[in-house]
Amino acid sequence: MSTPQPERPLAGPHGPEQRLGRFDTTERALHWANAALFGVLLVTAAILYVGPLAAWVGRRGLVRQTHVVAGLALPFPLLAAWLSPRRAALRADWRALARWDAADRKWLRSPRRARIRMGKFHPGQKLNAAFTLGALGSLLATGSVMHWFDRFPDHWRTGATFVHDWTAIVITMVVAGHIWMALSDRDALRAMVRGWVPAEWARHHRPKWFEAETGEPAQAVPDHETV
After folding, report:
1. Rg from Cα positions in the chain
2. Quick one: pLDDT at residue 94?
3. pLDDT of residue 56
4. CATH for 19-225, among 1.20.950.20, 3.50.50.60, 3.10.20.30, 3.40.109.10?
5. Confidence (pLDDT) at 49
6. CA-CA distance, 75 to 71, in Å (whole number)?
7. Which pLDDT value is given to residue 14?
8. Residue ranges of the chain with pLDDT lower than 50?
9. 116, 196, 218, 222: which could join 19 in a potential S-S bond, CB 3.0 to 4.6 Å?
10. Which residues 6+ apart lie within 8 Å of 107 measured at CB?
């Protein structure tokens, strides 16, 4: 039996209509499954913690149970995607997100980020991915302590509640920023909806990735700006 191959980008001349595949079906399904679960968690958490919302919605027991089920379900989309036969692109992007080079470090400290040649992901996306993964683990662990509280000592429950609440607050701000950034760049958003970006977008915003995928030179930058 042959091994399934990852979806390949559409390479070739980078005219206005040329497209490059950025995320395959597995990656997009994982993203939107996580987005849906985080959405349910944020909405139900708001209902549980904001008095007027709790009074308006009612049915606190059902809301709490929905919150718990969504939280326990968080690892499963990632696990399913990681074990999927069509996991090659996901694993390649995982390695790309974990790899930092000189351009990434320069991007973090430079006010002229537009002139730095980026690969498929810029450092902001890498930090967001690392934070999201860490937050997922933190929310799952502390939420479990809060839900099965009778199995843990009091100081564990107190600490878990503090960490859980503050992680939720921070991740709400991060998600809001992520959504704002996505809506501000329609080409990048299209990549997570339809899987591709215009080759011109890649050439301009991700020149290293463009060159790796097409074998064509991207826009040149001055020597003192190249990293």
Report:
1. 21
2. 93
3. 85
4. 1.20.950.20
5. 85
6. 8
7. 43
8. 1-15, 221-227
9. 196
10. 113, 116, 118, 122, 123
Quote the pLDDT of residue 23: 94
Q: Which two tokens stand for residue 164?
A: 């859980």
Instruction: Give the closest residue to 147 by CA, choosing from 161, 137, 168.
Output: 161
**Helix 75-83 and helix 60-73: axis angle, to 10°?**
30
pLDDT for res 41: 92
Other beta carbons less than 10 A from residue 21's beta carbon: 18
Distance of CA 130 to the CA centre of its chain: 9
Partnered with residue 180 across adjacent β-strands are none
- Considering only CA atoms, which of 170, 193, 195, 167 is closest in space to residue 182? 193
Give one DSSP letter per residue of the chain, joined into a string.
Answer: -PPPPPPPP--S---TT-EEE-S-HHHHHHHHHHHHHHHHHHHHHHHHH-HHHHHHH--HHHHHHHHHHHHHHTHHHHHHHHHSTT-HHHHHHHHHHH---HHHHHHHH-S-GGGS---SS-HHHHHHHHHHHHHHHHHHHHHHHHHTGGGS-HHHHHHHHHHHHHHHHHHHHHHHHHHHHHHH-HHHHHHHHTSEEEHHHHHHH-HHHHHHHH-S------GGG--
The model's pTM: 0.80
Residue type, 41: L
